[in-house]
Amino acid sequence: MLMIPGPSDPEPEVLAELSLPILPHYGDKWMAVYTETTSLMQKVFKTKSEVLIPPIPGQLAVEMAAVNLVGKGDDAVVCSNGVFSQNIVDAIRAIGANPVEVVAEFGKGHTLEMVKAVVDGLKDPAGKPIFLVHNETSTGVLVNPAEIFRYCKSKGMFTILDSISAVGGTDLRADEWNVDYVIGYASKALGGVNGVVPVAVSPAVWEAAKKRKGTVHSPFLDLNAWREAIDLDSSWGHPHPTSMPTSVVVALRKAVRMALDEGLDNRYRRHAEAADALRKGLRELGLGIFTDPGFLSNTVSVARVDAKWDLELRKRLVSDYNIMIAGGLGPLRGKIIRIGTMNSSARLERVHATLAAMERVLKAVR
Q1: What's the CA dihedral at 210, 213, 216, 220 to 10 degrees?
Q2: Alpha-carbon distance 32 to 44, whole Å?
Q3: Nearest CA to 135 among 176, 107, 164?
Q4: pLDDT in tens, 241-255
Q5: pLDDT cut 90: percent of the chain above it
Q6: Stretch 262-276: mean pLDDT, rounded?
């Protein structure tokens, strides 16, 4: 039973889609599937922006934004508060650009005041991007981007939201929040299968990428290549500049249909209730919650542990109860555990089963 911060266990109906005959990655039937899936994702993102489904990991979706919006020597604002936001800093540096960090402690989130202090210190913020991780999986921190992005857009900036571990389990309003580029994910809270990453791209980002045509250092990540495929190759059912894992997209379509049938508000409420119950149970087991109470996530809960028994706890949960949870990353390795409430794991029966197993194992390893 996967109680980790992704992937989640897909529902049986989603797994059944993988057994259907393979579709080629072009043609009328495929075009209908791909177009429907992108349209469904617009409803999840709550956006009118165009949605792409690149067959890449989440980190490359972040880098797609970086290489199309940031040139060598340019400034890019990055809200940094965990391992995955630090990955964005590294990506900016890798292309020869200058990451300007808005630093929050691990376990805490960003506020408008923190971002304003950095943005207002830039010589000219117009045209520069700001990267924000919606839900920092390494620390269980959820940040509301609404005020932050509203302010940054008033300064003429591009707004990039990494919602990889939030989408499908947490409220997301891309257009209302002024998000120019939002990154989703197939196999976390949406409950699809790993292999593709839905991305919504605003007209402003398309236009910025067009101005940088010929200078983007990655042909595969170049939005101009995607634009060309959409405009020229959709007529024969190939609206992307690469082959596609079609069965994975078919499974994603089913997962998104199921999420919308459940009702997004109902789904978000279910995830919040599961996370609340999990954190209450962790406290009752004597494990302190690591995350600042003002930034608690619906999809990842993080508790403090002792390095002396952290690994043994996780090993025994798998060997004795077939339940997997996650450990800490980077500087938090051996200091925390991370438990996902995503899609199928965001159910009270799974939360209670995990807590009961943890209680038994903790008695043995502490």
Answers
A1: 80
A2: 19
A3: 164
A4: 999 999 999 999 999
A5: 99
A6: 98
What are the pLDDT digits (tens) for 274-288?
A: 999 999 999 999 999
Provide the residue type at 86 as one letter: Q
Residue 189 token pair: 């809270």
**Nearest Cα to 366, choosing from 288, 284, 287?**
287
Percentage of the chain with pLDDT > 70?
A: 100
For residues 120-142, one letter each, b for 16 or more C-beta atoms within 10 angstroms of the residue's C-beta and e for the rest, the string is eeeeebeebbbbbbbbbbbbbbb
pTM of the model: 0.97
Query: Residue 170: pLDDT band by 50, 70, 90 thresholds?
Result: very high
What are the pLDDT digits (tens) for 90-134?
999 999 999 999 999 999 999 999 999 999 999 999 999 999 999
Q: Where are the domains of the chain?
A: 12-259, 264-365
Instruction: Report residue 131: phi and psi, to 5°.
Output: -105, 130
Residue from 134, 54, 55, 63 nearest 93 by CA: 63
Within 83-199, residue ranges assigned H as helices are 83-94, 112-119, 146-154
Identify the pLDDT of residue 217: 86
**Topology at the third CATH level for domain 264-365:** Aspartate Aminotransferase, domain 1 (3.90.1150)
CATH for 12-259 is 3.40.640.10
Residue in the block written with tokens 């999420």: 259
Q: Residue 364 burial (CB < 10 Å; 0-12/13-18/19+)?
A: exposed
Q: What letter does residue 296 receive in the DSSP assignment?
A: B
State the pLDDT confidence band at 71, using cuts at 50, 70 and 90. Answer: very high
Distance of CA 211 to CAs 50, 70, 139, 339, Å? 18, 12, 37, 43
Q: CA-based angle 191:234:253, to the nearest 5?
A: 15
DSSP code, position 189: T
Contact 278, 341 (CB under 8 A): yes
